[in-house]
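Progress report, Aim 2. The chain analyzed during this reporting quarter is listed below.
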Amino acid sequence: MSIESQEHRALRAAVAAFGRGHGRDHDHEALWSEAARLGYLGVSLPEEYGGGGGGITELSIVLEELGTAGCPLLMLVVSPAICGTVIARFGTEEQRRAWLPGLADGSRTMAFGITEPDAGSNSHRITTIARRTADGWTLTGRKVFVSGVDIADATLIVGRTEDARSGRLKPCLFIVPRDAEGFSRSQIDMELQAHEKQFELVLDEVRLPAGSLVGDEDAGLLQLFAGLNPERIMTAAFAIGMGRYALGRAVSYAKERQVWQTPIGAHQAIAHPLAQAHVELELAALMMRKAAELYDAGDDAGAGEASNMAKYAAGEACVKAVDQAVHTLGGNGLTREYGLASLITLSRVARIAPVSREMILNYISHQSLGLPKSY
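Predicted structure tokens for the chain:
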């Protein structure tokens, strides 16, 4: 008996068939456009704004199955999952009308900028500062490793504003249009082979209207983690899909490749590591589904713990699955024909982004286990 509902199984089957029709050598723009037309990009966004009315559970299914087919869409993590979720939960009615329909139908995309050169993802050390002006805000700072800025209509920037009562800085979210004066980008030269490029952003006294602030200025971390928990869940989906793709290629090869008239998959030295990779991917997938269900049910605290665990488990399982897949194919695992070698680099992303496994262990040790902080 499946633990998924009939609707989720149907969605999974439909996306899997769609993904197989595009495959590893897909045309990214065509894939994005068709996924939008079929409603997959907006499956988690509210129906009244053109979305499917589902949640992160449904969106994670979409990304996992596209990854399994060899054609994951990284901007699914960013545009609908982070930005769309934050705007749907905390945005003004005007912001929802302006952005959610476009994010749902793929006609608009939004990037997300939190990481800084000296702060990483530590929201307490972010130095991008927002100051009030007579008619809005002025934003100054830098961001690094921001995905897809060149194709995004705007970037959701995490800045900090000064609390009028305490004088302390607190995180806030701002929508910065790509053509805003003083907002510039430079591409980071990455060895990673991905359609979505990475950028460093400079915000030099960027003037924004009052309506650029998303949500309540005093909500702080609540709004921020409304986007970061889905990011972790979707990163887990990305990793699980990639691991399943690599494992599938290895299993097929192990069934067909023969040595001394015997398929190599008959040997336990080949079969057992592949079976172990399958077990670990399935366990990570279970935690990911738990995290998504908790988030969709409104349990932000429970989702915080589970989404971090899911991201950790999926990242580890993905790296191991890719490594074992390449090892199973031997020299063929490094050829362009089989399409696995590039995953060696890509699979590491799930370990280090959007938060490293060490920071997740820090979170679990003091949030779940009650151990004292080391920082």
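Residues 29 and 363 are 37 Å apart (CA to CA). The radius of gyration is 21 Å. These observations will guide the mutagenesis work planned for the next reporting period.
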